Amino acid sequence: MDKKLRVRFWILVFIVAISGFSQGMLLPLIAIIFEGDGVSSSLNGLNAAGLYIGILLISPFMEYPLRKYGYKPVIIIGGLLVATSLLLFPLWKSFWFWFILRLLIGIGDHALHFSTQTWITSFSPERNRGRNISIYGLFFGIGFAVGPLMTPLVHISESLPFIISSLFCFIAWGFVFFLDNEQPQQTIAVQSLKGTFHRFYDVSTYAWIAFIPPFSYGFLESSINGSFPVYAVRMGIEVSSVSLLLTSFAVGAIIFQLPLGMLSDRYGRRNILMIILFCGFILFSSAAVFEQNVNILMLLLFLAGMAVGSTFSLGISYMTDLTPTQLLPTGNLLCGVAFSLGSLIGPYAGGLFIQYIQSLSFFAVISGMMLINFTIIAYFGCHKMSKQSFHS
User: Which of 30, 67, 102, 231 is a plausible cystine mate for 362, CB 3.0–4.6 Å?
Assistant: First the structure.
């Protein structure tokens, strides 16, 4: 990449890192606040789902403004919505007010991620695509790893973590104004909601298998960060230890994000995805056995992060391999939808599991999901890129 593209790439990566920070903070922070207030685990999970409901609600309407106005305006609006919503949390502590704010953050985050992902995949050369998307995922993971460390600040002031996160988001938002706007490839018209759903179908025929990893990661991330803190506190684990457990998983994902992306460029996305999903199944099954030992659990979550922390970025790269260039915005949109569906199901299913099933470990749900997704990709996945001709 030339100098201009490198500057653009790193600004987009920085924005995503701050977004990861705010998300990594928000899930465990609100889960622990609500648990302390006596909110049930199922309602706790429902509130966490607000962010992903927002993503799903806005998804069908995202492609039109991106194609018409370009990447920069969509990122600016999304970033402003996230930063402002975070600042409003201390204004009124109410279950439904916070639910609405999380829904708005979901809309803003999706606008931000959809635009940055599509922009990066559009200007990344094929030989470095896995590496670039992995760097994108790596910095999101760094932010996500630091986020939970803000949780102990709740003992100083419940407002403080929200204010700090909002401040960081406004700083990152300011960098967007230094970018020159661009628009996606305009070989297809976007004139109606019906046309958008038609492209959803077209992309699904090429790359439906690539939506499994984002779904898997959404379920995993939201259930670990939204439901596991409740499960851990009920087992008697200290809040500070819960933060370290969440961070150990995120740090593991950071360490192996780039190597796995480069390996997928060399050995194929499907092969790497099969290996990491099966490793995830083994490691989370082991976590179910050793969950009472915090030190062993921390090690297992660290290794699990190394294994499966790249499933989202690898899924995006896999989708890009399989999808015609002019349909990449739609493909990125559907990756976000798949991630959101997994994220929506994760915390609520986790909350119901914690509330009604005490005889089985929380980690058994995650290990079972990993095994199912491994089986689907092993049986249906494509070995090679299979882009076909496309006519709008």
Answer: 231
